[in-house]
Fold this sequence. Notes:
Elements: H1 2-7, H2 18-31, H3 38-82, H4 92-131, H5 142-175, H6 182-191
Amino acid sequence: IAMACLEGPVSHYTKQGAVGGTLSFLWNTITSGGQLELSMLVGLFAGIITGLIALAALVYVALEYVAVELEALIVGSVGVIMLGFAGSRWTVQQAEGYLKYAVAVGVRFMVLTIYLAFVEYQTPPIVQNLLNGVRQDGGTNISTTLGAYINILIFVALIAWLAKKLPGFAASILGGSSSLSGSDLYNAVKTA
C-alpha cells in the first residue's frame, strides 16, 4: 500500500518503479525550474503522507499478529507443565483453566490469521483500483488525487480498527454472541 501511494501520481512521469520513480520525480522537480504542475506536487506529498500513515497502520496489524503468535507459543510451552496438574483431583481446576485459556488464544490466533490472509489478498487490487484515477497522462486532477488518497486512508483505518476488534470477535465466537455493532464503528470514527 505504501509503495503504491508513493508511486501514485508520478508513475506516468517515470518508469523506474516506485522509489526510484519518486526520487527521479523529485530530482526533476528541483532541476526543472518550476515547469512541473502544482497538482503533481500536491499529489506527490499527499501520496507520501498517505503511504506513511498506511505503513504505520499495517505495522500495528503486524505487531498485533506477532503478539498473538508469541502468546500462542508461550501457552503451548506452558501446557506441558499445566496438563500435568490434570492428574490430581485437587489441581484439576488449574488444568481446566489452562485448557480454556489455550482454546481462547487458539481462536484469537485463528481469527487473526484468517483476517490477515484476507487483507493480504484483497488489499492490492482495492488500492490499485482506488489509484487508477490518480494515474493519468497529461497531469492529475487534484480533487481526484486527494479523493483517492482519502479513500485509501479510510480503507487502511478500517483495516487497523478491525485488527483491534479481532480479540472481541474471538470472544464472541467462544461465547456465542455478536460483539460488533454500528455504534462501535461510529465511536471509532468519532474519536479519530
